[in-house]
Input
Amino acid sequence: MIWHQQRLLLVRQGRPGHPRWMLPGGGVDPGESLTVALARELNEELGCRQVAVAEPCALVESIAPEHHSSGRHLIHVVFRVDVPDATAIQVGDPDSSDAAIQEVRWVDRDGILRLPLHPPIGAYLRGYQPGSDFQYFGELWAP
Output
């Protein structure tokens, strides 16, 4: 999660008519650590070439129900990330190498709760303060 002036950076992905807002990030490639993968993803999605990945803050498991066709079990590790020049991040329609990103937006704390967030941890993000205790959310599935 990237905070700047009490606003959180979120990206929109999803199918037409079914948007999902989420923290920027992505998958881990073979041989990558979590922090190296996060820095790479932030560069790909947002053009952030310099980031300081701080402590992990939360862990969420997205486990598809048995009857769901995806069979997915995703593990979301939420890190706090410091970006030296957060004002340089382009918001709106992205100029991104990641075609899945449809929009980038700074969202104030109250606005977080008004968006379809995936995974559904809006209340946690809204109340987050640096130094907060690590949170394990367990299984939170959002189709």
Observations:
- The CA atoms of residues 51 and 83 lie 5 Å apart.
- DSSP finds three helices and seven strands in the chain.
